[in-house]
Amino acid sequence: MRFTRPYLFFFLLLSQIAAAGDFIKTSDGIIVRPEAVFSGNAKEIQLRVLTENIIRITAVADKSIAENKSLIIVGRVQSNTKFTVVSANQTVTVKTARLSAVVNLQTGAIAFYDATNKKLLAEKELGRTMQPQVFEGERLFSVRQDFTTAADDAWYGLGQHQDDLMNYKGYQVQLFQNNTEVAVPFLLSKKNYGILWDNYSLTQFGDVRPYLPLNALKLFSKDGEQGWLTASYSNDKTMPGNIALQRAESSINYEFLNDSKLFLPKEFKPENGVAVWEGNIASDIEGIHKFRFTYAGYAKVWIDGKLILDRWRQAWNPGSVILDVALHKGKKQAIKVEWIPNGGESYLSFKSLPPLTPEDKNGFSFSSEAGKSLDYYFIHGQNMDDVIAGYRKLTGKAVMLPKWAFGKWQSRERYKTQKEMLDVVDEFRKRKIPLDNIVLDWSYWREAEWGSQDFDEKRFSNPDSLIDVLHKKYKTRFMISVWPKFYEGISAYKDFNQNNWLYKRNVADRQRDWIAQGYVSTFYDAFNEAAQKGFWNLMNQKLYKKGVDAWWMDASEPDILSNVTPQKRKEQMTPTALGPAALNLNAYPLQNAKGIYEGQRATNPNERVFILTRSAFAGLQRYAAATWSGDIASRWHDMKAQISAGVNFSMSG
After folding, report:
1. Domain tally, the chain
2. Burial letters for 31-47: b for 16+ Cβ neighbours within 10 Å, e otherwise?
3. 554 in active site
4. Cβ density class 631-641: b for 16+ within 10 Å, e for less
5. Binning pLDDT at 50, 70 and 90, where does residue 318 land?
6. CATH number at residue 307
7. pLDDT at 75
8. By residue range, what is the domain housing residue 336?
9. What is the SS3 assignment for 259?
10. Are residues 160 and 251 in the same domain?
């Protein structure tokens, strides 16, 4: 019999389907070799039983690529856990006393069950992808894993985010360190399971479809013409009717640094002006659309005349919000967007996602830009707290903080002199108001010497005496702000530069900061162990020896330049001591805290460490670190958003 090409292809496909993959048993689990065409390019999938309720899953597309040591896992969990391996038809099951993992030998898809054989979570069939990528000349993979779960599941954790969401089901969460945004790749489910995604690159969770530009919707101008909205620009926000420019626009996308300077019309003066987009929108897809706005200054949105968004944010520090908007198939709905930038540079963007399909509503994904493998830990618990206990078994226990850290603090932006700080503490004592700690925020150094860790003697004439008086007379602890930032040319910069401990792109770009005429600066490479020690030695010599009690670690994302794209951040961090910036992007705050914690403990093992850091990552709790919410706005809606942000952060381990 002679096959034509289509029939031959079909025959070969059937032969592949008929031939299931195989597996081998190991001392701590199994290795499955699925059919790569069905497994998302994974050649091997290894399941390691770590405890009765924790299984590690690693999918490898290229065995020749050596794995790095995990930055978030503490040592290696030694497992003497009893488990059984049973194969049947085209599946193999790894079972402990509390947990079972059933693997499809052909596709490598895994389903997880509790001790009563109730399904907890499953990898979606054909839901794994490992696409070859190249970063800084190194071969890596973009990795994605899709999961399906119960209709009544709910998802928490993932760090700290400002979209005022408690349950992330049905939403997208971007894991990218930023001022007010903290990325922690740990998911906690109300079904008493958790996923620790061991990846440090730019990552999306949940509904990982890319947000679409405004013109993905049907747009109609104020006059009914299809294809755009009517944009009106006035240079006097008190007189929006005095229009300097009116034109057709089909996108609103001033999301990142310099966008508004580059792309707003030249006739518009944003520091005093107001911009309005008006018309109608429509969609042929019925249901709840996700409208995501990035905003700074004043932003208002109306749908069919109803105000659905009214926000303000500092022009230099944009916020974000996600609105659920019901659109009806084929029906036009009036829209108006009003923006008062409130500064010479500001931010506004409007993007959307159409409704999820019914099939996708009960699932989520982790999708990461760069990895050597696809690597995660499945943790099951009797309750959510038990799941977090499993997370800490992997990433380290939360160490005890100093007792005084649980007391009353006083902080402001900022105490400008030694006298001002002492006067404040003295007034607390006179009024018999409890006070355990006072914080000296940034800019205590000489203007041109950021990173020196030296006090400006004109304003802080005797810092040793200041701290001594706080301790002995007022019985108050002293916390100080430290940034991983160095101005070009200062002594510490020269020392770090000579040792190749600095990121140099920001210097090469001659990028100036916002202080006075602007100074060129950069950050140190916290992935370099020698640089970690060098940074602690600088802090120790200049600050800790004076009696500083705790550390306020600002801009630890690292915020080398604010409001940049992820691509720009990676360029600024290139290279890191551990390889491509794309691979290590989100783990900077963990490594920064590690160097300080280990440095202080080595210097003084009898004193507890306390670090307050603006950014965090999985495992930070082992370094005596707490996190604050960054530079949020002084508005009630921002305060409200801190409830969900803080609770989810606490459920991030």
Report:
1. 2
2. bbbbbbebbbbbebbbb
3. yes
4. ebbeeeebeeb
5. very high
6. 2.60.120.380
7. 74
8. 212-353
9. helix
10. no
Is 23 within a domain? yes
Cα–Cα distances (Å) from 363 to 126, 189, 377, 609, in that order, read 14, 12, 18, 41
Whole-angstrom distance, CA of residue 424 vs CA of residue 409: 12
Is 463 domain-assigned? no
In the numeric block, which tokens belong to residue 124?
């979606």
User: Positive or negative, the Cα torsion across 444, 450, 455, 457?
Assistant: negative
Question: Which of these is catalytic: 44, 554, 559, 638?
Answer: 554
- Residue at 614: amino acid letter: R
pLDDT tens-place string over residues 88-123: 989 999 999 999 999 999 999 999 999 999 999 999
Whether residues 19 and 137 share a domain: the answer is yes
Pair 230, 257 in one domain: yes
Q: Are residues 308 and 373 in the same domain?
A: no
Please say whether the beta carbons of 363 and 208 come within 8 A: no
Instruction: Name the active-site residue from 207, 557, 559, 638.
Output: 557
Known catalytic residue at 223: no
- Residue 154 contacts residue 192 (beta carbons within 8 Å): no
186 and 226 inside one domain? no
Annotated catalytic residue 236: no
Cβ neighbors of 583 (< 8 A, separation 6 or more) are: 135, 138, 140, 200, 201, 370, 371, 372
3-state DSSP assignment of residue 98: coil
Arithmetic mean of pLDDT, 28-47: 96
Amino acid at 311: R
For the entire predicted model, the pTM comes to 0.95
